[in-house]
Write a structure and sequence with these properties.
The chain is an all-alpha fold. The chain contains ten helices and two strands. The longest helix is centred in the C-terminal third of the chain and has 34 residues.
Length: 264
């Protein structure tokens, strides 16, 4: 199998397809032209930039280069997860970062050290792409979990306060909202796992096949990645929900809805 290199002309042709989105926006009066242009521009600039950066990182391949890059990726993911949802509370950003950091780094460590047995562990060819894929999916899970938790608690305030007034614990009052939040956070990954290989071919598997790797070898890698993503998404969502719960309920079993604020 031969690897087909892409020229800048090829990229330009592919990039022109975004005009289809722009045309639909104009015809349907969606008013998304500016957002589409901005999103497309950021996609091109960010991916080209990270391509050059990773090229340098791969050549250097030192832990003191790889580790700060991984930390930066994690902080950006945490900030992105905290920026969604209609409700926010003080400490949301730190809860988001901690949830994503703990879950994604733990699962990445298992994947690198126990499954792939990468030596040294900071080998950028493996550490950065694997962490990036796990972060991207964990980000979505944490964001959905926090958003659903705050929304369920705000909408069900009367029920929550009734349970507390009847002598229920803070966990009994928040349990229904927490269950819904964890389900919401895990659902995208579960849906993806259900149709993978039948409806969709994941990006890592596709990239390896296009690069000339054996399909069976690419499939084995993709199975590993899917289960790492599933584990990190579940752990991250549970951690985020518990941290949110701890922020909005006091040790004296009081619900503090005043801490929830509409996002500006």
């Amino acid at each position: 199998m031969n690897y087909l290199s892409l020229s800048y002309l090829d990229l330009a042709i592919a990039s022109s397809l975004i005009l289809v989105n722009g045309l639909l926006s104009v015809l349907l009066k969606l008013r998304l032209e500016r957002q589409l242009f901005w999103a497309a521009s950021r996609t091109i600039v960010q991916l080209l930039a990270i391509g050059y950066i990773l090229g340098w990182v791969f050549r250097v391949a030192e832990w003191y280069i790889v580790l700060p890059l991984m930390l930066t990726m994690t902080l950006v993911a945490g900030n992105a997860a905290a920026s969604h949802g209609k409700l926010r509370y003080r400490g949301l950003l730190s809860d988001s970062v901690v949830s994503i950091w703990l879950s994604s780094w733990l699962v990445t460590a298992v994947g690198l050290l126990l499954v792939l047995k990468v030596r040294p562990w900071y080998e950028p060819q493996y550490a950065i792409p694997i962490l990036g894929m796990i972060l991207g999916n964990t980000l979505t899970a944490v964001s959905l979990g926090i958003e659903r938790m705050t929304r369920e608690l705000a909408a069900g305030r009367a029920v929550v306060e009734m349970i507390l007034s009847l002598g229920g614990s803070r966990w009994e009052a928040a349990q229904a909202a927490a269950v819904q939040a964890v389900r919401a956070g895990m659902m995208p990954t579960l849906n993806q796992m259900t149709v993978v290989g039948i409806v969709s071919l994941p990006g890592m598997m596709t990239g390896q096949i296009l690069a000339g790797q054996s399909p069976t070898e690419a499939v084995r890698y993709q199975i590993v990645i899917m289960f790492l993503i599933a584990a990190s998404s579940a752990l991250g969502t549970v951690c985020a929900v518990l941290l949110t719960f701890n922020r909005l309920f006091s040790a004296a079993h009081q619900f503090m809805p005043h801490k929830l604020e509409p996002r500006r």
